[in-house]
Design a protein that fits this description.
Layout (H helix, E strand, L loop, with lengths): L14 H19 L9 E7 L2 E7 L5 H7 L9 E3 L10 E6 L1 E12 L3 E6 L7 E5 L4 E12 L2 E14 L4 E6 L8 E10 L2 E8 L3 E5 L4 E8 L5 E7 L8 E7 L8 E6 L5 E4 L2 E7 L2 E3 L6 E3 L3 E6 L5 E8 L13 E4 L6 E5 L2 E6 L4 E7 L15 E3 L5 E8 L12 E8 L5 E5 L9 E2 L9 E7 L10 E7 L6 E4 L13 E2 L10 E6 L2 E6 L5 E3 L6 E6 L1
């Protein structure tokens, strides 16, 4: 007996097969999407913000920042939240807002001044002089405190500012001088550590003139009669000026220095030789860039009364460019008879034309290229009869095409009668600073100058002190001894006159001290020993 198989007709299906298919589809959809009938429950959140408590719900998967936004809570720059704002909320959570603030407190603290003792053989042994009174400083300490929800969690020093700089007390104590006093003619003044001192009669007699410690040494000149000291004093910090010009009467020691109310004098201020009550000067304009000024290259004059007060003022030459490298400034020098005022600037040497209120050039100078923030100005000296000018000239070099960088500097003379230039001494160096001796009755006239030990590097070289006759003959090297350290660039000073039987002295500064040397025998003697002297003048 056979079993019969009945084939379904094409295009037909059994109901039970369709049911199975539907069940499989439902199971697949359920596995992919979860339970479509399930409902997502919101999550409860508590936010504590200082004394305020916020209760709210947020959808699962939100972050803390979303909860803060819903509660309209705004965080400031320093505030923080626990847990952090990026934390995802997937269960009931408590959020803590921590309000962070900072406070600043300023405390003032006194800075005690220091005490300094300076040994000085300018004073008698055992004598004391208060050079500078001590002043306490003031320091401001700023502390930063951090508070979290009003409770201080940290305190630290934020910054320190010195509102008042302390000023050291300086007491000068006299010690016995190891040097034998020398009788000298006239008056000698010197500048040591910003203070002015006077030597009179002999080198053992030293008188403090100004002990404020603020003389800058730009101008430090005695009047031709030795009655007045003209000097510059540093301006107060933040005043917008560099210095000021002052006057001190040396005949009346009870008077105070007189402020001439003239500011920013760097290169020149001096008396006219025949009219000691008339002062000529030149000024600069302060600048924040090196060298600290822009020269006016002008020339002005004032007449002072017997009390040191200004009686009149006049502009002789108005401000001008000053030629090549004129930003540095112009130097001036009176002829001994007061008939002419010579000028020197980086590109020329000449005379002041008082009739036309201008400068009349005599010699064109090859400017020296310093490649720095200073400019070289030729050294000048007049002959005793006011007929010759001794000038340091800059010459071209055959070894270089850049003539402005030439290391060759010669000493020359300029005749005012013929306006001709005559070479006198070769290769003296840029800081030769010639100084002609004053006329001493019938004694021969001599010229002193400095000569660079290394003339090819004369801008950094030390120098020898040389004397010659006015025609260049009879050369003598008088200081220092062979093998000793040379002099720093400076203007040496001839003794203004000569006492009976006394040598003709030259005064100069060596290693911070004043020395005197016999210009004929080269016998020298040290005068001071503190090593702090920077300027001197002798009239």
């Amino acid at each position: 007996m056979r079993t019969a198989h009945i084939k379904p007709k094409p295009g037909s299906s059994h109901p039970w097969l369709m049911l199975i298919l539907l069940v499989l589809i439902c199971l697949t959809l359920t596995a992919c999407s979860g339970n479509p009938l399930a409902t997502v429950e919101p999550i409860s959140v508590t936010i504590q913000d200082l004394q305020e408590v916020h209760q709210l719900t947020v959808p699962a998967g939100s972050n803390v920042q979303s909860a803060l936004d819903k509660a309209e809570i705004v965080l400031r720059e320093l505030d923080r939240v626990e847990p952090p704002t990026y934390t995802v909320i997937d269960e009931t959570i408590a959020i803590q807002v921590i309000r962070v603030t900072e406070e600043f407190e300023v405390e003032e603290k006194v800075m005690p001044y220091l005490r300094q003792t300076v040994r000085n053989e300018s004073l008698a042994e055992g004598e004391q002089l208060l050079v500078q009174p001590g002043v306490n400083g003031l320091q401001q300490l700023t502390y930063r405190s951090v508070l979290e929800n009003g409770i201080e969690t940290s305190r630290s020093l934020f910054k320190t500012t010195i509102s008042v700089e302390p000023q050291s007390e300086i007491i000068m104590i006299g010690v016995q001088s190891p040097f034998k006093p020398i009788e000298i003619p006239g008056r000698m003044v010197y500048l040591t550590a910003g203070n002015a001192w006077l030597i009179e009669d002999d080198t053992g007699t030293r008188i403090p003139l100004i002990t404020s410690g603020d003389l800058d040494g730009r101008i430090f000149n005695l009047s031709p009669d030795g009655k007045w000291l003209l000097f510059t004093r540093l301006a107060e910090e933040g005043s917008g000026i560099i210095n000021s010009l002052w006057l001190l009467n040396l005949d009346n020691r009870d008077t105070e220095p007189e402020n001439l109310q003239i500011d920013n004098v760097i290169h020149f201020a001096d008396w006219a030789p025949n009219t000691p009550q008339m002062i000529f000067y030149s000024t600069v304009e302060p600048r924040s860039t090196a060298p600290g000024w822009q020269a006016n290259n002008n020339l002005l004059s004032v007449v002072i009364g017997s009390d040191g007060l200004i009686l009149s003022q006049e502009e002789v030459v108005e401000p001008n460019s000053g030629g090549i490298y004129g930003w540095w400034g112009t130097h001036f020098l009176w002829a001994p008879d007061g008939s002419q005022l010579a000028y020197a600037r980086p590109d020329s040497v000449g005379l002041v034309d008082f009739e036309n209120n201008n400068y009349y050039p005599l010699v064109d100078i090859l400017p020296f290229q310093t490649r720095s923030d200073w400019a070289w100005v030729p050294g000048l000296s007049w002959s005793a009869d006011s007929q010759l000018l001794y000038v340091v000239t800059h010459e071209k070099s055959t070894d270089s095409t850049n003539h402005e960088a030439s290391p060759i500097f010669n000493l020359s003379t300029v005749s005012l009668s013929t306006l001709k230039v005559f070479p006198l001494v070769q290769q003296v160096g840029m800081f030769a600073q010639p100084q002609f001796s004053p006329a001493f009755q019938s004694e021969p006239l001599r010229l002193a100058y400095l000569e660079a030990i290394f003339p090819e590097q004369s801008d950094t070289s030390h120098y020898r002190l040389i004397t010659i006759d006015q025609d260049g003959s009879n050369r003598k090297e008088i200081f220092p001894a062979e093998g000793s350290l040379g002099l720093e660039p400076q203007v040496v000073a001839w003794s203004p006159s000569r006492l009976n039987g006394q040598p003709r002295y030259l005064g100069y500064i060596y290693q911070g001290n004043i020395w005197l040397i016999d210009s004929e025998t080269a016998k020298f003697q040290q005068v001071t020993g503190d090593g702090l002297i920077s300027r001197m003048d002798w009239q």
